[in-house]
Amino acid sequence: MSLRLGFLGIGILLVLVGKLSGFFKDVFLTYFHGISLVTDAYFIAMSVSSAMYMAIYLSIPIVVVPACARINSSVEQHEAGAHLGAMLWFYILISALCSVAAYCMSGFLIGMLSQSPSAEVARNAELYLSVMGLGFVLSTVLAFINCMKTVDGKVMSSYVVPLVNNSFFCISLILFHGSEQFSYVLWAGVIAWLVLLAFGGRGLPSLLASGLKGVFAGRLDRRFLSVFVSAVSAFYIEQAITVVPIYFSSSLGEGMASAIGYAAKLNLLFLSIFSIFLTTSIFPMMARLESVRKIGTISTLSVSTIRVFLIFFTPIFLYCSVFSDEIVSLVFQRGGFLESDTFIVSSVFSILVFSIPFVALKDVLYRVYFSSGKTFLPLICSSVALLSAVVLAQGLSSSYGLVGVAAAVLISSVINVLLALWTLWVFEGLNYTGVVLRAIYLPALISCFCIFIAFPFSGLHHYSWVVGGVTYVVFYLCVAKLLRIEEVGAIFGMAKKFLK
Predict the structure, then answer these.
(1) H helices within 105-203, ranges in order?
(2) Cα distance between residue 185 and residue 170, in whole Å
(3) How far, in Å, are 57, 187, 205, 239, 332 from residue 97 at the CA level?
(4) CA 111 to CA 293: how far, in whole Å?
(5) Rounded distance between C-alpha atoms, residue 154 and residue 66, angstroms
(6) Given 3-state DSSP classes, what are the helix, strand and coil percentages for the chain, each rounded to the nearest 5?
(7) Sign, CA torsion 313/318/324/330
(8) How far is CA 12 from CA 66, 135, 155, 211, 357, in A?
(9) What is the DSSP letter of 373?
(10) Which residues, at least 6 apart from 495, have a Cβ–Cβ distance to it below 8 Å?
(11) pLDDT tens per residue across span 367-417
C-alpha cells in the first residue's frame, strides 16, 4: 500500500513539475519576445501545425488504448506484437505524410490557414512550420509506446514528456533569444523528442520488426481502422476550430494573433492537467471496461468524472475570469511584455477561460461515444461547432475585435457540448444533462457568493488578490461541505484521516 502511495505521489509531483515547466516556458517566451512579429509567426505556425497533425496525435490514446487492451486479452503475446506493431507502422506512415507536407508545402499552408499576415510574419511562420513538422513521427512513436505502457499500468513516462519538452524549450530560448534565432529553439524541440524516444523506446526495434511482418500478413485490425477514421475525422474538425481564432485575429493587426495565442496558453495550463488525468487514468479504465462490454459501468465512471471536474474546477474558472488582469500580469508582464499587452490578453482570457469546462466535458462525452461504437456522432457535433465558430467569428470580430473572436470560441464550445448531450440522450438513452446541470449550477452559485466575500481582500495590495483567492477557496469548500456536496465531503474525510 505504501509503495502504491509512493508511486502516486511521484506521479502527482511529475504532473505539477511538468505544469510548472510549461508555466516557465510561457514566461520566458513573453520575457524575450513579448507580443511581436516573432510570436505572431510562432502562433500562426503552431495553429497550422496543430490543424495538420494534432488530430493524429490526439487520436492515439483514444484509439490505441482500447485496441491494445482488447488485443492483449484476446490473442497470444507474440501475435499481439504483430497486431500492435502493424498499428504503429500505420501511424508512422500517416505522420510522415504530414511531416513531408509541413516541410514542402509550408508557404501554401500558412497562406491558406492565416489571414493577411505581413511578409515577415509569413516568412518566419513558413520556417517555423517546416521545423515543427520534423517532430511529427517522433512524437507519434513515443505517444504510441506510452499508451501501451499505460494499459499495463505504467504511466510515469507520460508524465515526463511535457517536463522534458518544456525544459528543452526554456534552455534553448535562453541560449538563442534573438529574434532571428528563434528557429533554433524549435530545433531543440525536435531534439527533445529524440531524447525522450532514446530513453523511453525500449522494445521499439522488436515491435517495429513484428509490426512489419504483421503488415504484410494483413494483421492490421479492421476495428482499429474504423475507430481511427472516425476519431481522426472528429479531431481534425476540432483542430480546425482552434485555427478559427488565429485565422480571424491575424487580420486584426500586428500582435493580435499573439494575444489570443497567449490567452489560449493560459487555458491550456488548466485544461492539460485534466487531459493528462483522462489519458492516464480514466481512458484506460474505460478501455478495460469496454473490452469486457461493461457499458453501464462506463456510463457511471463518466458521470463521476464529470461531477468531480465541474465541482472542483468551476470555482477556479470563475475566479480566474474575475481576476484575469492580475493573473496575466503575474504570469506574463515582464521583459518585452508590456502593460498594454496585459490589458489585451486579459480581456480575451476572461472569456476564453469559460470554454475550459465545455472542452473537458466534450472529451468525456466523446469517449462514451467511442466506447458504444457510435463514432459518427462526434463527427456531426464537431462539424456543427466548427460551422458555428466560423460564422460567429466572422460576425463578432468585425464589431468587437479580439473579444468577439473569444466569444465565438466560447459559444461554439457550448454548442458542441449541448449537441453531444442531446445526441447521447436520443441515440443512446443516456441522459447526462441533469448530471451536468446539477454539477455546475450549485458550485457556480457558491463561487459567486464566495467571490463577494473574498473580493475585499483583493484590493489591499497589488498581490493581495492571491490572499483573496485562498480565502475564496476556504469559503467555497466550507459552504460546499455545509450543503453536503458528496465529493467535497470526501475531501474533508481524506484530510481527517491524513491528519490522524
Answers:
(1) 106-113, 119-132, 136-151, 156-175, 182-200
(2) 8
(3) 14, 20, 21, 18, 36
(4) 47
(5) 15
(6) 90, 0, 10
(7) negative
(8) 24, 27, 11, 34, 21
(9) T
(10) none
(11) 777 666 666 777 888 889 999 999 999 989 888 888 999 999 999 999 998
pLDDT at 127: 93
From residue 423, how far is each of 79, 140, 369, 419 by CA, in Å? 38, 31, 10, 6
Greatest Cα pair distance in the chain: 71
Q: Evaluate whether 95 touches 87 at the Cβ level (below 8 Å).
A: no
Q: pLDDT digit string (tens) for 424-472?
A: 888 777 777 777 777 777 777 777 777 676 666 555 455 566 666 777 7
In a domain, 499, yes or no: no
Distance of CA 313 to the CA centre of its chain: 15
Report in angstroms the alpha-carbon separations of 72 from 65, 77, 288, 292, 414.
11, 7, 11, 12, 38
Q: In terms of C-beta distances under 8 Å and separation of at least 24 residues, what long-range contacts does 385-391 make, across chains too?
A: 385/237, 385/238, 385/241, 385/412, 385/413, 385/415, 385/416, 385/419, 386/237, 386/238, 386/240, 386/241, 386/244, 386/412, 388/412, 388/415, 389/241, 389/244, 390/244
Residue 226 belongs to a domain: yes
What band does 218 get if pLDDT is binned at 50, 70 and 90? low
Instruction: Name which of 271, 285, 266 is nearest 333 in CA terms.
Output: 266
* Residue 67 grid cell: 485496441
Structural domain tally of the chain?
1
Helix (H) or strand (E) holding 80: helix 77-104
Residue 294 lies in a domain: yes
The identity of residue 479, as a single letter, is V
| Three-state SS at 248 | helix
| Residue 109 belongs to some domain of the structure | yes
pLDDT band at 4 (very low <50, low <70, confident <90, very high): very low
* Number of C-beta neighbours around residue 410 at 10 A: 18
The burial class, CB within 10 Å (0-12 / 13-18 / 19+), for 96 is middle
Domain around 186: 2-431
The residue behind cell 509503495 is 3
CA separation for the pair 45, 83 (Å, rounded): 35
Provide DSSP, 305-318.
HHHHHHHHHHHHHH
Contact indicator for 44, 117 with CB cutoff of 8 Å: yes
